[in-house]
Specification:
Blueprint: H1 9-22, E1 28-34, E2 40-46, E3 49-55, H2 64-76, E4 83-87, E5 92-96, H3 103-106, H4 113-130, H5 132-136, H6 143-161, H7 168-186, E6 190-193, E7 202-203, E8 211-212, E9 219-222, H8 225-231, H9 240-256, H10 267-294, H11 305-316, H12 323-334
Antiparallel strand pairs: 1-2, 2-3, 3-5, 4-5, 6-9, 7-8
Helix pairs in contact: 4-8, 4-9, 6-7, 6-10, 7-10, 8-10, 9-10, 10-11, 11-12
Length: about 325
């Protein structure tokens, strides 16, 4: 009988590895999630137990950073998938299964927000407080990387997606805003940065909540980066006063646990760092969402661009040096989307 499903040689290879290497003949394989890269995840169910298989085609994805950061997070003592089996040559890993409920799904019930964010912030504090040694071996989130990320906004969203070239004045305004954002990021204390710490990568787990996914791009960088990824999330938005309350709650914990020193105790200064770091991240994310559409054939993220850039307009309106950027995004970019 002809199988009408489209051919998936990687999936056949994975099944072959599981059956022949481990003798798992009675298994069920179903997609667990796809992310914005070439990696895919499958839930492998046998009897009553399940594990997650990562498929990372070796010509496109290197599993080494994933393995390295997974070991760091395990040593730090937060709940990330443990690596059970590996076949690096084929690009397959077997991981513990952290379940199927993302923060994004759970937060549809707004009544759960306080408890879920409290857990996510306390896990973040643990990573930063205990991850100092690990952070020293991660790549730096330096000026080059910060500027490259913001260039995704101009290259992919403005030029490619909107065909909106910048005139001389626009280029000057954008360059000035980028300078301000880079300077603010680089003056912050440096910590272990997960780099994608948000509602689609945090799983609701009984016990050690949250389960933390998608950490392979970790770097050493600004203390507010993961916090603003979490609280000004590209996929779900909260009122400003709640976000700032949560951010200042984090600041207090960070001061208590030595992540921040006494001279970083000014709430106004901290919220400025938090605001500006968010603008850098949201410009990058809007560029990536456009790139996913045009380069990778994944249009599903285009709908998240208005929310993402809405943060930029909102924050820019409160910081004079970002005023021109905010007006440009509001009048020229959001107006066209």
């Amino acid at each position: 009988m002809h199988d009408h499903r489209r051919e998936d040689p990687r999936l056949d290879l994975l099944r072959h590895w599981l059956e022949h290497e481990f003798g798992w003949s009675d298994l069920r394989l179903e997609p667990a999630s796809a992310d914005a890269s070439f990696r895919r995840y499958f839930r492998v169910t046998r009897g009553t137990g399940s594990v997650v298989a990562m498929d990372a085609p070796p010509d496109k994805e290197d599993v080494e950073p994933y393995l390295r950061v997974a070991a760091m997070l395990e040593a730090i003592g937060v709940n990330a998938p443990r690596v059970l089996e590996r076949n690096e040559a084929a690009g397959f890993l077997l991981l513990t299964d952290l379940g199927a409920t993302t923060y994004l799904e759970a937060l549809a019930d707004a009544g759960r927000a306080e408890a879920l964010y409290a857990d996510a912030i306390s896990a973040l504090v643990r990573i930063q407080a205990r991850g100092g040694e690990a952070a020293r071996s991660l790549p730096p989130y330096d000026e080059r990387l910060l500027r490259f990320e913001m260039s995704l906004f101009t290259d992919w969203l403005l030029e490619r997606h909107l065909a909106l070239p910048l005139d001389e004045a626009g280029r000057r305004d954008v360059a000035q805003a980028f300078d301000t954002l880079v300077a603010s990021a680089l003056e912050q204390p440096r910590v272990f940065v997960h780099r994608d710490y948000h509602s689609r990568n945090l799983m609701v787990c009984p016990g050690n909540n949250p389960g933390i996914l998608d950490f392979q791009d970790a770097v050493t960088g600004a203390v507010t980066y993961d916090l603003v990824s979490l609280l000004r999330d590209c996929y779900i938005a909260w009122p400003r006063h709640r976000v700032e309350d949560w951010a200042l709650g984090y600041q207090e914990l960070a001061l208590q646990s030595g992540i921040l020193r006494e001279e970083h105790g000014d709430p106004e200064q901290f919220l400025r760092w938090f605001d500006l770091m968010g603008v850098q991240r949201h410009l990058k994310a809007a560029g990536i969402f456009a790139r996913l559409n045009h380069r990778d054939g994944k249009p599903g993220y285009l709908g998240d661009i208005p929310r993402t850039l809405g943060y930029v307009v909102d924050v820019a309106g409160r910081h004079d040096e970002l005023g021109p950027l905010g007006e440009f995004v509001s009048d020229r970019v959001l107006a066209q989307l």
